[in-house]
Amino acid sequence: MPDEKPDPERPPRQTAQLSLGKELLALAKGLSTTFSEALKPNLTVQYPEDKSPRSERYRGRHYLRRYENGLERCIGCELCAAACPVGCILVVAAENTPEHRVSPGERYAKVYEINMLRCIFCGYCEEACPVQAIVLGPEYELADDSREKFVYTKEKLLEPDPRDVAREVDGR
Ligand code: SF4
Ligand code: SF4
């Protein structure tokens, strides 16, 4: 019986079987990933009705805070404006008087504005404030239809007087 010579162009049968085995294994692995993901609960958030939770450290829209007695925390020191790397905060301070007391300090912010189009939400203003008056909250829906509306005035930034809120809640 003549000796059969192996064809150099044809891969040995063992190698072909090995490669087929690897491909089947990869296919099974891929399908198992697909099926396991398909069985997991749906993660789609029905925005805007539902909102995904923000991290506690999330830095969104700014607020100017008050004390429980309704006085504004801001003392018009302008440290936040000095700390702001893009210069988007404008503070114009005025003196408190016994007849017109706005904050516990000597001065208060007569004008307080933030140009939100320039803000980079770095949080430096919040860190610089000695009385925790300016804070960045969790709100991120800031879209608007004109550039002017992105200049947030003190009226827009100031949180409601807690005494008014309590009255509303009590229905007084
Ligand atoms: S978050 Fe940063 S950029 Fe925005 S107002 Fe504060 S300091 Fe300025
Ligand atoms: S927000 Fe704070 S840092 Fe800025 S002016 Fe008022 S008190 Fe000073």
Walk me through what this model shows.
With 172 residues, this protein is an alpha+beta fold. It has helices at residues 13-38, 79-83, 124-128, 154-157, 162-170; strands at 62-64, 89-95, 107-115, 134-136, 151-152. The strands form two sheets. It has a three-stranded antiparallel beta sheet. The chain has a two-stranded antiparallel ribbon with strand order 1-4. It is elongated. The structure holds iron/sulfur cluster (2 copies). One iron/sulfur cluster binds next to helix 2.
Descriptive terms for the model:
single chain, alpha+beta, Alpha-Beta Plaits, 2 domains, three-stranded antiparallel beta sheet, 5 helices, binds iron/sulfur cluster
